[in-house]
Write a structure and sequence with these properties.
- By secondary structure, this protein is of the alpha/beta class.
- The protein folds into 2 domains: 94 residues, Barwin-like endoglucanases (Beta Barrel); 107 residues, no CATH class.
- 22% of the residues lie in helices and 41% in strands.
- The protein has a 6-stranded mixed beta barrel. The protein has a 6-stranded mixed barrel with strand order 2-5-4-8-9-6.
- Strand 11 and strand 12 form a beta hairpin.
- The longest helix has 16 residues.
- The chain starts with a helix and ends with a strand.
Length: 207
């Protein structure tokens, strides 16, 4: 029993010791709001901060909304700040099935094919024609990290995960922006499939 536990812990730690290790951040369903939609839903011009997240300048807002799809709704979905040019709801495939939505797997902000969704706050309700998406797997990093790893914005890499449900997953999009910290972003479905949590590590498989 103890031996089994030790083996599981070691398996989890192995990716962290890899020179291409990157910390994991798991995203639950959340929404980003435009300035105009923040006003409609909450009557606010600024978002109160609930807590900062790993990426500098980004934070979980002290605001929650309700999401409505054709089949169901979700209460108390976290708003992430700061405001974006366009509002969007980032959902898992499981969330989409529950809501009755067919949202595409795309990069955050790429809303051309996004699904319609309704969002309600304490002050109002909005119907968005193209706002629901499943975020494509991606890895954040700054330009200096990208250079050190020989990577460029929009490259794709595989990532190896340890642990009893570990494995190698394809198609992580590298996203490079000044001041970004290296971080692998997974949604809840992906994290549950791999049995990983925020703070665990994955190792990029670089050729
Ligand atoms: Zn991300």
């Amino acid at each position: 029993m103890i031996e089994q536990i030790i083996q599981q812990v070691i398996a989890r730690l192995v990716p962290a010791l890899d020179p291409n290790a990157v910390v994991i951040g798991v995203s639950n369903r959340h929404v980003h709001l435009s300035q105009a939609d923040l006003m409609t839903l909450f009557g606010l011009t600024e978002m109160p901060v609930f807590r900062p997240v790993r990426q500098p300048g980004e934070f979980a807002a002290d605001l929650k909304v309700d999401l409505y799809g054709p089949k169901a709704s979700f209460k108390d979905v976290r708003v992430m700040g700061p405001c974006r040019a366009q509002s969007q709801a980032e959902l898992s495939k499981t969330d989409c099935r529950a809501l009755g939505l067919q949202a595409p797997i795309v990069q955050s902000g790429h809303l051309e094919r996004a699904a319609p969704i309704e969002i309600a706050g304490p002050k109002g309700r909005i119907e968005l024609e193209r706002a629901a998406l499943v975020a494509a797997r991606h890895i954040h990093m700054g330009p200096s990290h990208a250079e050190a790893w020989g990577l460029r914005d929009q490259d794709t890499v595989k990532v190896r995960f340890g642990g009893v449900r570990g494995g190698v997953m394809d198609n992580f999009i590298i996203r490079v922006k000044e001041a970004w910290a290296p971080e692998i972003h997974l949604d809840i479905d992906e994290a549950n499939a791999l049995d990983v949590a925020s703070g665990d590590f994955g190792a990029m498989v670089l050729d």
